[in-house]
Structure formats: structure tokens, C-alpha cells
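tool_call: predict_structure(chain=1)
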Amino acid sequence: MGASLPPKEANLFKLIVKSYETKQYKKGLKAADAILKKFPDHGETLSMKGLTLNCMDRKSEAYELVRLDREYREAIKCYRNALRIDPDNIEILRDLSLLQAQMRDLTGFVETRQQLLTLKPNHRMNWIGFAVANHLCSNVAKAVEILEAYEGTLEDDYPPDNERCEHGEMLLYKISLLEECGFLERALEELHKKEPKIVDKLTSREQEVSLLVKLGRLEEGANHYRALLAMNPDNYRIPLDFLQGDKFCAAAANYIKPLLTKGVPSLFSDLSPLYDQPGKADILEQLILELEHSISGDGRYPDRYYMLSTHVTEKEPPSTLLWILFFLAQVGNHLLSSLHGPWSVSLQ
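tool_result:
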């Protein structure tokens, strides 16, 4: 520990931490080398030197010390060692929180984000970061409380023009959390109340439609869908929210196939809300499995889907099968996450 060093070296160690925080990496590295010349096995100094080298893009050298690129747990240990000397170091706490998220140490992630909020409550991102951390821990109601507490610190005329977009995104996020909690009426009421402060009107209207459909207000929802289609007639995703049965399957195939061919990583994220609608998860599962079976066989999509698509009947590129398998892996991760909380499966 830094406290076990003689006074001269202990002061040098404090200089390393200060230099890291202020991004004066060369100065910090020089101080670290001075300590290690006398105490070559001093763990905290080795840790801070590794972190400093990493920030200087000298990763090969940092790797030899703390192996940051692969062994994140070792890196977390380095940050914790540094925080023993300077427990309120914002820079180190922020970096530690990112590593904890990377390692899926969600309990530690929540604790670190709470500490950052306590130290800097006037920073919007610290409130949002704390809310996101609780969301990832499946504590969605707590995430809503945090964002509402943040709103309680704001003046009525907030936000200023230069922060309208970011504030609007935060409001949409809070409304999506209310929806996730099952507070549908409250989410819709909040959406209407905060609509003037939301810049992204298209996403706002799409979220409103989703809430109306879930509330069973189908006629209103249909009217909103027509308005959205009038705004963007090429959006083939919209009908998937209200079609059922065979019509849903046909529309889903028409929508999914070109995106699998193209290789769109966000496809599952786009379709994931459909998994909460009765019956649609099973239809999508059978559809994707059928596509996978056919592509694995002769390299083409099933014959019965050719007439539904504008694509020609030539063989798919090998990458299509990869994207189908990636989609199926995301489905499995989604199902496990719903049982055990987020990030239950690591896709390597």
C-alpha cells in the first residue's frame, strides 16, 4: 500500500494518482519509475504505472504489468488499490465503473455509480449512470425513482436550448422504464405531459403507439400507425406490431430476410419488443429456425418465402448463416436474461 512507503516515496505515489487524474501521464510515469527503482515489487505503484501506460497507448507495456486488455479483474484490482489512496478520485471511479460494467460486476457498478453521483450530484450523466446501473441490476423501479429525483432538481424552464436533445432522450428512457415496469397508463400520461420537451418526435410517437396497443386501445393505435406510415411509407417494421398469425409471419419474413443478408447487428434489438406480445415469440422462433435449416441445407431461403420478398432466388452468402446464428444466440440471451437478470450469458 502507498501508506507503507517512506515519506518521500509516499508523496511520489500521491503525485502519480494526481497526475493520472489530471492526465499528466508522463509526469506520473516518471514518479512511478522513481518509486519502483527502490521498491520494484510495490503493488500499488505497479498498478498505477500500468494504468498510466494504458492511457498513453503503450498497451504492450501495460499488458506486462496488469494485462488490461484481457484480464479486466486484474485491472479492477489496480483501480481499487489506487482508490485506497484517493477514494474520491473522480477519474479513477469513472474508469472503474466502466470496467465493472465490462466484467458484469453489476453490484459493484451500482456502488461506484452511486459514489460518483454523491461526489458530483450536479452532473446529469451521474444521475443517468446510476439509473442505468440499477436498470442493469433489474431494479427498474429504482431507476425510475432516480431519474424522477434528478428531474426534481431542475427548474421549470429546463432545459436550455443546447441541452434539449439530451434531456429529451432521458425523458424517453424514463418512459420506457415505466413501460418495462408495467406502468402503462402512467407511462402514457408522462409521455403526453413531457411531449413539449421531447425533441425526437418520431420516437415519441412510436412509443405512444406501443403503449396504446399494450393498453388495448387498438383503434387509437391503428390511427397512430397510419400517421407514422404516412410519415415514413418505407418503414416495414411498423406492421409487425399489429399484424397477427400468418400475416405477421409473412411480414416478419419479408422484413427479416434482407436484414440477415445485409448483416444488421441491431436486428434482434429492433424485434425484441415483439417478444412481449402474445404468440409472436413462438412465430419468430419457428421462422428463424426454418430460415437457419434452409440456409444450412442448400444455402437459400425456404421456397415459400421467395414470393414474399423482392430478393432473387440465388444462394445467400455464407455470412447470412452467421447472422442467423448470431440472432438465435441473442434470443437465447434474452430468454435467460428474463429469468436471471441482464447479461446472464456472455457471447464470446
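agent: Residues 307-311, 340-348 have pLDDT under 50 and may be disordered. Proceeding to next step.
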